[in-house]
Each structure stands twice: as C-alpha cells, then as structure tokens.
Amino acid sequence: MTRPKALAAVGVGSIGKDFVTVGITAAIAERSAAGRAANDRICASALRLKFEDDQRVPFVCECGDARCLGTVMLRLAVFARLREEGCLFVLLPGHENAGEEQVTEGGRELGYVVVERITNPAGGISD
Ligand SMILES: [Zn+2]
Description:
Layout: H1 5-10, H2 26-48, E1 56-60, E2 71-75, H3 76-84, E3 88-91, E4 101-107, E5 112-117
Antiparallel strand pairs: 1-2, 3-5, 4-5
The chain binds zinc ion (ZN).
C-alpha cells in the first residue's frame, strides 16, 4: 500500500473536529472536514516551501467518500480564493453528489470541480 506523498507529509489521520456540520449528513461532513483539514495543512506546507501562487499543488479530494484517495491538482491562488469564499469544496470531477452538491466552477478539462453543498436546512452559516 502506497499513499500519496502529500497525504503522508501532512499526517492525515489526526483530524480536527472544528468543522461546522450544517445541513449535510454527519458522516459526509466529517470526511469532508478531514479532507479540508488535510488541504489546509498541504496549503501551509506549500507556502512554507515557497510555492508560487500559480503553481499547482496536489490537494486531496473533499468528496466525503471515506475510500477516496484522489488528489486534485490546484493552483495555490485558486485554493486560497475558495477558502476565502467559505463553504466550497474541491473535488475530482465525477466525485460530486448531484443530489446534495452544485458545481460552481471547474470541470473535467481542468481536473477539478468546486461544489457548494445545497442542502442547508439550518441556514446557519454566517459570515
Ligand atoms: Zn473523491
């Protein structure tokens, strides 16, 4: 079993529990939170290693599938913008869940999609 180096480098497995679970199932939210926490660490590592904004960095797919080990090549600047916009998730194309997620940008030709979770009955995301 080999794991992608980026995953090993950021120590996936020790996951923060501070993700707000609003309107999506707890299991998916927890797995997505794991992906987001890992990606935040990847981003921090890339910045520490002096990656440029337009360099592509291997992030992990935030689809919420526990078996998914997909990596998504994304420019640092794009990743930073998505985090600023809040509740957006970066996925491999085809990993989106049509019932619960709406693709807001990206596509197969770019190698990634960005989704917004559309089930949000609590309406509890504030900014
Ligand atoms: Zn995935």
